[in-house]
Amino acid sequence: MEQPRTRPPQHGPRRGTPPAPLPPQARRGPAGGQAPARRPVRPGPGQPPHRTGPRLTGLGGGLFCAALMFLLGLIDQLLFGASLTVYGVLFLPVCALTALWVRGNDLLTAPVLVPIGFAVGLLAVADDGGGMAGRLMGLVTALATQAGWLYGGTLIAGVTVIVRRIRRVRRRRRLGPARPAGRA
Description:
Blueprint: H1 58-80, H2 84-101, H3 110-125, H4 131-145, H5 147-175
């Protein structure tokens, strides 16, 4: 009795077949030496310049937002006596920076990260009524009373992410379909 296959067929080169030729950029230069040095590629007219700004992963964006908001909360407490309005105003540019600096593959994490950063920063600014229960009650009260700043910052991050995503999709469509790696 014949047994059915338990594994799907594997794609790629099979044993005993010659390997596929290397692409031109992987081949060695003349006489087997090193490849000739290439000049840096400059964008042509009409092409946007390559941006070299910081690109954060989802985790890095969360750490950036939380650490910066906690630091701004401490500064707010020292300079302005824990003003929640100043804290909310400082939250808005942090939201924009987080949404701009997160890398393309992690775009959808930015609107999730900024409310977490807001709550982490509130730990430094919220009233503490004494003890753990008093601090928790001050944090919940601050979150409830400053919901407008929280929604505004999340909206800024969300709109920024949507605009970046639309531009990224349009750029990919304009450049044409990319071929899968390893296939000619």
